[in-house]
Specification:
Blueprint: E1 6-8, E2 17-23, E3 26-31, E4 36-41, E5 46-51, E6 61-62, E7 71-76, E8 80-85, E9 90-95, E10 100-106, E11 127-133, E12 136-141, E13 147-151, E14 163-165, E15 173-178
Parallel strand pairs: 13-15
Antiparallel strand pairs: 1-5, 2-3, 3-4, 4-5, 6-10, 7-8, 8-9, 9-10, 11-12, 12-15, 13-14
């Protein structure tokens, strides 16, 4: 499989696109098949790989070196692109101005569950969707049974806490966090 595609939009085949997010004139595409995020420049009508090495992994770092595992849900607050990285059971973020992918919360490929904690100790189970509302990000965690909310601090060293709220439905959990200091 060729992982770093680019060219005229109509000449590049998509591989398992699961979500779209528009930021300005750029359409970001969650490509679950090749474990990448692609972008479509709507002005130029060109598509290219935006983030992800193609390796199924939880790996933070520069855009094209980062590893995703079935990125599924995209959201933005205009400054960050958030990714529900389903198979890794984590939420990722990319500050649209710095070229780096980082993990906000969650475990890893085989570290999943239902744990309210901080940062890497949070356990999700197959988050699929996300939406940014004001300074909050809502996450649909499909294999959970409760609703959750989390405030998140911006600095890398700050703890990120999750707290349960009302149940949504028996097989899903909705997570909420803010980008404001706790």
């Amino acid at each position: 499989m060729e992982y770093f595609k680019q060219g005229p939009a109509r000449s590049i085949a998509l591989s398992s696109p699961w979500d779209l997010q528009l930021v300005g004139e750029t359409l970001y595409i969650a490509m679950a098949g090749p474990h990448q995020i692609w972008k479509l420049d709507l002005d130029k009508n060109e598509i290219s790989t935006f983030a992800g090495s193609g390796r199924e992994a939880r790996l933070d770092g520069p855009l094209l070196e980062a590893g995703f595992a079935q990125p599924s849900g995209l959201a933005t607050d205009g400054k960050n692109l958030y990714v529900a990285d389903s198979e890794s059971n984590i939420i990722r973020a990319h500050d649209l101005s710095d070229g780096q992918v980082r993990t906000l919360v969650g475990g890893d490929l085989f570290e999943f569950g239902d744990v309210d904690a901080t940062g890497n100790d949070v356990r999700l189970q197959h988050p699929l969707g996300s939406v940014s509302v004001g300074n909050r990000l809502l996450i649909a965690d499909t294999l959970q049974s409760q609703d959750q909310r989390t405030p998140i601090r911006k600095s890398k060293e700050s703890p990120r806490s999750w707290e349960p709220v009302n149940p949504v439905r028996p097989t899903a959990r909705l997570h909420r966090f803010t980008n404001q200091p706790v």
